[in-house]
Design brief:
Length: 125
């Protein structure tokens, strides 16, 4: 690829993992996802910091996205340094050493009629 696309810093101002789901896991488990595209030629070293209303931030969570690949990372599955609590509002900042594109997706399956929402994250630089 001639030119990298994306930014090195992104923000998702909204996050919430429901405490329960109305469908089989993992397919229909309620979740928040950070979809990361690395269209460049170098691996992306990604750090995610999670912010809360009433406590200090969690993180950084670290993942690598190989070159010319995508990663759909469920916030529900983050464990190190700590799990993200369910039923707790949060926000996140995603930072990378190379340009990436970040999208935020939520599946809310607390009722039989599932709700799916997706939006591009806010590019900070």
């Amino acid at each position: 690829m001639d030119q990298a696309i994306g930014r090195k810093r992104w923000a998702i101002a909204e996050g919430y993992i429901p405490g329960w789901s109305h469908g089989p896991a993992p397919e229909l488990e309620s979740h928040e996802t950070c979809c990361i595209l690395n269209a460049g030629d170098a691996p992306a070293q990604v750090r995610i910091t999670v912010y809360f209303e009433d406590r200090e931030p969690a993180g950084p969570y670290r993942v690598e996205v190989p070159p010319r690949r995508t990663l759909h990372l469920r916030f529900n599955e983050l464990r190190d340094p700590e799990p993200i609590p369910k039923e707790t509002p949060y926000a996140s900042v995603i930072e990378s050493d190379v340009p990436i594109v970040v999208q935020h997706t939520r599946l809310d399956s607390r009722q039989a009629e599932n709700a799916l929402m997706s939006t591009i994250a806010y590019p900070c630089e």
